[in-house]
Amino acid sequence: MVSFKEFQGLDLRVGKVLSVENIPNADKLYKLSVDMGEKKITLVAGLRPYYKPEEMKGKKIIVVTNLDHVTLKGVTSEGMLLAAQEGNKVSLLTVDKDVKPGSKIS
Amino acid sequence: MVSFKEFQGLDLRVGKVLSVENIPNADKLYKLSVDMGEKKITLVAGLRPYYKPEEMKGKKIIVVTNLDHVTLKGVTSEGMLLAAQEGNKVSLLTVDKDVKPGSKIS
Prior knowledge:
The structure is a homodimer. Chain A is mainly β.
């Protein structure tokens, strides 16, 4: 079990996907530019087998913003987007009402 | 900053809202019964100012399943649903494809 305090240590926010590019020499990876309200960040996500770029552009996604950054194929991911997995199906998390990028999740 | 390992300690899953009831003597609280795939759990959520019961019933939501349980107004919440807040607007997190209750989020 995890304490509420530990959970609160995670910074989860709504982001809006601005652009989606393939990363060369990486079959599964996209480089995303994401509007987080006060700033714009770059995310790397292994979603190429599951989403087309046009399905992601403009979408509201959920981002963990305070994870240690990781660099994949030379691109640094400044956070991690959240997605649900059921076997070979992957679904992005999103919001069911139109809230602004940067909105905090709790 | 939070490590990926700490993040992985959280168990986040898709749930499906089965029923929504008011909790007596609590203006803001709903008692939800939620299908988590292998089991059904009870959640307490302060969503009465923001959602009608019929807006929530059947909806896929996102639940932290391994938080310490809390008891509010005599009802024990066996997890916490996630929602985004922008001022006075609150939006549930959900999935953008139809994945099964119990599907793990990462």
